[in-house]
Amino acid sequence: MAFKNIQTELKDGIAYLTLSRAPLNWLNIEMMEEINTYLESLMKEKTLKLLVVQAVGKAFSVGVEVAEHLGDLAPKMIETFHKMFRIMDTLKVPSLSVVNGSALGGGCELALYCDMVIATEKTKFGQPEIQVGYFRPLPP
């Protein structure tokens, strides 16, 4: 499978998912859909033993694309984002994130959702969106 925003490899039972929207690996809907497509394809792999999530660029991921938090895109963004974690749960194999650089917001959540994390001394984990103070009321 060829993707625009991620690189993938399956070798010796290890699935590699590499975020490749350098330099900061913003998670946009298109990228998350690619991730979901790849993760869904792994559900058929009988020899799968481990999922490795890693990245190229200056950051692991600085989170979900800010513009996609707004207006009509927000519900689709949230559903696509949450679907990554639901699929990871169904894989029933351990997952490992390899983090070098910043893992912020949704990128932090993706890294820390894995069963194991290997991080370099340059890694920074954070949830900067807490500073935004955005409140979205629940629908009636």
What do these coordinates show?
The N and C termini lie far apart (43 Å). It is built from three helices and seven strands. The strands form two sheets. The chain has a five-stranded mixed beta sheet, with helices on one face. The longest helix has 19 residues, at 73-91. With 140 residues, it is α/β, with parallel strands linked by helices. It is globular and about 45 Å long.
In short:
This protein has 140 residues and is of the alpha/beta class.
Sequence-ordered SSE layout with sheet pairings:
Elements: E1 6-11, E2 14-19, H1 29-42, E3 50-55, H2 73-91, E4 95-99, E5 102-104, H3 106-113, E6 116-119, E7 124-126
Helix pairs in contact: 1-2
Share of helix among residues? 25-40%
Radius of gyration: 15 Å
Q: Specify the CATH class.
A: Alpha Beta
Name of the CATH architecture: Alpha-Beta Complex
Strand % is 15-25%
Could you report the average pLDDT, rounded to the nearest whole number? 92
| Unreliable segments of 5+ consecutive residues | none
Task: Classify the secondary structure makeup into a structural class.
Answer: alpha/beta
The N- to C-terminal Cα distance equals 43 Å
The domain tally reads: 1
Tally the beta strands: 7
- Report the principal-axis shape: globular
